[in-house]
Amino acid sequence: NTIIHNGQTKQQIISRQDKVGMIARDLVYDLRQAIYHDELTVVYQPKHHRAGHIVGVEALVRWTHPRYGFVSPAMLVMLAEDSGDINKLGRWVFEHCCIAKAKWNALGHQNLTMAINISPLQLSDNALPTFLSGCVTKYGLHPEEIELEITESSEISDSQQVEKILQEISDIGIHLAMDDFGMGYSSLLHMRRFKVNAIKIDGSITRDVLTNSTNADIIRTISALGKAQKVSVVAEYVETKEQREALLEMGCDIFQGYYHSPPLKPEDCPRYFLSHRHEVAE
Ligand code: C2E
Ligand code: MG
Ligand code: MG
Ligand code: MG
């Protein structure tokens, strides 16, 4: 039993790997159950106009595992992508958001958009557009009130299938936003291939806006592109007033981040919407 890594024996490492594999299998199984039994939740992070008022929210899925505790959405999405449950998860989140949106509309918040993240893998599901339009109709929403945030990835850039699905979604009237813009590749190409309504600059770029002049140049360039293409430019990870001011000066249109608000529980949203309806930026 010779020590082979970090003071651990081969046997110890193998048994640790077994344990990791077991936890992953547990999680996949329990996630499936959680979707089925409606045990996931969704929180909503406000997005603010450059003038100050709120313009919409982004839905972010949350899952607390009974034994392992909080599972990050990045992990959750990865597990679901691997296990083949991503369409189920995506549909659960979408329908859940439509229900919340319908409630808020009844309170007079039709003008706020609901942005929902979708995994690029969901775009290989031919039945997705029909599901989306069915859901929108079922809850009495207008498709323009919904925006799908798509992370650029190799899946998106390669396939004609994906292009067809995105076209169908866009024909329904649902808006599309490129998420994490500037991080992947060929992001500029996508803009030629399907109608994009918004681009969200990746948080890792906006985060260092005050200290990294290259990032500042990238943000100015993306903003100019947005202006030329008549597409709104969203800055995420806006944590301070100084960052907001810099991003505003660089031409960003919409701001999201802890400076304005963390993601909110659904029951806290209506009060927030009311109090930030006419807010004017300082
Ligand atoms: P994203 O779409 O880029 O979402 C933004 C992430 O930044 C969220 O993390 C949000 O909580 C976090 N964030 C917001 N403001 C700030 C800030 O000021 N500073 C910092 N440091 N972080 C901030 P979260 O909720 O952990 O989600 C991570 C990623 O998981 C999301 O990135 C998205 O790609 C994915 N995701 C979340 N919910 C869903 C979902 O329902 N479906 C799919 N397919 N993906 C989802
Ligand atoms: Mg997003
Ligand atoms: Mg993002
Ligand atoms: Mg991200």
TrEMBL record:
<feature type="domain" description="EAL">
    <location>
        <begin position="24"/>
        <end position="277"/>
    </location>
</feature>
<protein>
    <submittedName>
        <fullName>EAL domain containing protein</fullName>
    </submittedName>
</protein>
